[in-house]
């Protein structure tokens, strides 16, 4: 017969095991139910900023039970990490090389090393910010750190990095504005005729909305090559101070923006990833 | 030759399907590239669209000034309209697939328009 302390230990282990099994079953159900998109063999986990790339990153860590190397890619930049037991053990490398973060690679993340956690967060934020698409490849694990170091759980990282992993996806137009906020110096967002939000100096945009948008859209609709559906119209030098203005349309939503002309290509790429 | 410039731009711009050179004062397409062969009514519609988004004949579609550049992106196409700096009625119209590289297209089209307009 086991001693009382042995019985207590067995009970605790049993409870923990059951909890892990339930979590694992939930993850497997979620994996089986979803409709993943793959691109060149990599799973697309964030498209047009949805979900937020950092949220998507933590979700992948959270669903990784067996030890794996995970390669997250934004364009040509790949950040490789080791995850296991729904925990991020540490970071392996960034390609192309990022010299400023060299002390981070190959070391196990720990709550006792807040500077390392800050560096990891800064690195990931730097790579993920403005990402039109984030993909992940799950690869066989490789030797990393020492066996006794487990890293930090995805939920623990969400708490430390203040990431809301249960965030509700934004509507497409709001997502477009959020993802490209650094490109805009002013925004006027209208939905079903009501002004929902403004940002920056909107004097020029307000004038366009009040006096020109209706007539402009009617003129566009009368053209033989008119297409229904979402639109992005960018106009360089249209404002009286020489600034550039853009008009985005989607359903009942109309957004007018003053944008940085150097970001035209990025704006179009982002619009396309969200609305097409 | 303007047509040679348009052909060169079309060949250099992946995703670009047709290029036309228009005069907004008469709302006419003057020259197109030799490959695309768009029907007349499509060209007319393109020219009217260029005038309404860029602004022409003292009428401005959006904003306070006629625009130097207009990009119109829809689900199935991207239209780029570029106005010559010295001849504001001279406009380059590019009809492209939705996945065209906009930055590269603008760069190449600006150089092309400068050569046409300065020639």
Outline the structure in words.
The complex is a heterodimer of chains A (276) and B (119). With 276 residues, chain A is an alpha+beta fold. Chain A has 8 helices and 12 strands. In chain A, the strands form 2 sheets. Chain A has a 7-stranded antiparallel sheet with strand order 1-2-6-3-4-5-7. Chain A has a 5-stranded antiparallel sheet with strand order 9-8-12-11-10, with helices on both faces. In chain A, α2 (53-62) packs antiparallel against α4 and α5 runs antiparallel to α8. The radius of gyration of chain A is 24 Å and the shape is elongated. The mean pLDDT of chain A is 86. With 119 residues, chain B is an alpha+beta fold. Chain B has one domain (2-118): Dynein light chain 2a, cytoplasmic (Beta-Lactamase). In chain B, 36% of the residues lie in helices and 26% in strands. Chain B has helices spanning 2-12, 40-54, 102-118; strands at 16-23, 28-32, 69-73, 78-83, 90-96. Chain B has a 5-stranded antiparallel sheet with strand order 2-1-5-4-3, with helices on both faces. In chain B, α1 (2-12) packs antiparallel against α3. Chain B is globular, with a radius of gyration of 13 Å. The termini of chain B are close together. Classes of the chains: A alpha+beta (276), B alpha+beta (119). The A-B interface holds A 204, 207-208, 212-213, 216, 219-220, 223-225, 227, 229-240, 242, 245, 247, 264-265, 268-269, 271-272, 275-276 and B 41-42, 45-46, 48-49, 52-54, 60-78, 98-99, 101-104, 106.
Observed structural traits:
heterodimer; A: 276 residues; 7-stranded antiparallel sheet; 5-stranded antiparallel sheet; 12 strands; B: 119 residues; Beta-Lactamase; 3 helices
């Amino acid at each position: 017969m086991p001693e009382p302390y042995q019985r207590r230990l067995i009970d605790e282990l049993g409870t923990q095991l059951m909890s892990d099994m339930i979590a694992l079953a939930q993850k497997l159900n979620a994996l089986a139910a979803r409709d993943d998109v793959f691109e060149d063999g990599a799973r697309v986990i964030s498209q047009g900023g949805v979900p937020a790339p950092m949220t998507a990153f933590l979700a992948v860590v959270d669903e990784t039970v067996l030890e794996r190397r995970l390669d997250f890619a934004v364009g040509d930049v790949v950040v490789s990490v080791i995850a296991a037991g729904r925990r991020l053990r540490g970071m392996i490398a960034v390609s192309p090389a990022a010299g400023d973060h060299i002390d981070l690679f190959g070391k196990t993340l720990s709550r006792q090393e807040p500077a390392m956690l800050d560096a990891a967060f800064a690195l990931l934020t730097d790579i993920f910010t403005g990402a039109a698409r984030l993909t992940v490849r799950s690869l066989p694990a490789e030797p990393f750190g020492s066996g006794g170091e487990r890293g930090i759980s995805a939920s623990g990282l969400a708490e430390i990095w203040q990431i809301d992993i249960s965030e509700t996806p934004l509507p497409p137009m709001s997502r477009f504005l959020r993802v490209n906020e650094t490109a805009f110096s002013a925004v006027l967002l209208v939905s079903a005729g009501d002004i929902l939000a403004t940002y920056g100096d909107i004097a020029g945009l307000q004038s366009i909305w009040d006096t020109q948008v209706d007539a402009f859209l009617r003129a566009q609709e009368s053209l033989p090559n008119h297409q229904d559906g979402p639109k992005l119209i960018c106009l360089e030098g249209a404002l009286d101070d020489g600034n550039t203005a853009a008009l985005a349309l989607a359903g009942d939503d109309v957004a007018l923006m003053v944008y940085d002309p150097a970001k035209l290509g990025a704006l179009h790429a982002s619009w396309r990833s969200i609305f097409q | 030759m303007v047509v040679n410039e348009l052909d060169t731009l079309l060949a250099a711009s992946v995703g670009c399907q047709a290029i036309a050179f228009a005069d907004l004062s008469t709302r006419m397409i003057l020259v197109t590239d030799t490959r695309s062969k768009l029907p007349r009514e499509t060209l007319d519609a393109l020219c009217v669209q260029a005038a309404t988004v860029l602004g022409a004949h003292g009428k401005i579609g959006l904003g306070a000034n006629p625009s130097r550049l207009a990009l119109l992106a829809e689900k199935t196409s991207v239209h780029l309209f570029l106005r010559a700096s010295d001849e504001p009625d001279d406009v380059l119209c590019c009809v492209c697939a939705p996945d065209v590289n906009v930055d590269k297209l603008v760069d190449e089209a600006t150089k092309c328009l400068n050569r046409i307009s300065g020639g």
